Amino acid sequence: MKYISVFCGSSSGNESVFAEQAILLGKRIARRGYGVIYGGAHVGLMGAVANGALEENGEVIGVIPEFLKQKELEHKRITKMHIVETMHERKALMNELSDAVIALPGGYGTMEELFEMLTWAQLALHKKPVGLLNTLGYYDPLVAMSEEMIEKGFLKDEYRGIMIVEDNVDTLLDKMELFVPLKNDKWFEVK
């Protein structure tokens, strides 16, 4: 891993621990020598991750659509900013630039980004580790839903491991560094 894409909310949530963990994640990514790829905003958890990495002199690369830049959400102090036209271009470039993905708490946008990366992993379109920082059990319902999908036959058991879920930043990064991609890319075979 060299660069980690971080998907997270443009708001900070209603508990201070969400922003605290986002700052800590940014710091820990930078201390381990990785760069942060993120959505380019200065607000919410996005800004917190970027600021945490910057505090440790880390490399922070933003990818922001022009329409969000025009709303003055662009972070002005990061290492590099890519301006794109659409949200689709944003995701594609973030994927292209990164070697791993971490999702923090967030809303629909974060979930959409996360699910696309999980789907691409399932389809063997990438072999990157996908981590979820499970602050305050935020992702517990998603983990339970994934188990339900497996139980009901909509998701193969072997895909349980494509989500690395941890509530501790260092443990999450440790597990992501040790990640071994699935060898089975025949997701479409019927048993």
Task: Tell me about this structure.
It is a single chain. The chain is an alpha/beta fold. Helices cover about 40% and strands about 15% of the residues. A seven-stranded parallel beta sheet has the order 4-3-2-1-5-6-7, with helices on both faces. Strand 2 (about 35-40), helix 2 (about 45-55) and strand 3 form a beta-alpha-beta unit. Helix 1 (about 15-30) packs parallel to helix 2. The model has no long low-confidence stretch (mean pLDDT about 95).
Could you write a compact summary of the structure shown?
The chain has helices at 16-31, 44-55, 66-70, 87-97, 108-122, 140-151, 169-177; strands at residues 3-7, 35-38, 60-65, 80-84, 100-103, 130-133, 163-166. It has 191 residues and is α/β, with parallel strands linked by helices. It has a seven-stranded parallel beta sheet with strand order 4-3-2-1-5-6-7, with helices on both faces.
Helix content: 40-55%
Element string (H = helix, E = strand) = EHEHEHEHEHEHEH
Number of strands: 7
* Number of contiguous helices: 7
Widest sheet: strand ordering: 4-3-2-1-5-6-7
The best one-word shape is: globular
**Gyration radius, rounded:** 16 Å
Q: State the end-to-end distance.
A: 34 Å
Largest sheet: 7 strands, parallel
Which stretches are low in confidence, meaning pLDDT under 50 for 5 or more residues running? none
Structure class: alpha/beta
- The average pLDDT value, as a whole number, equals 94
Q: What share of the residues does DSSP label as strand, in percent?
A: 15-25%
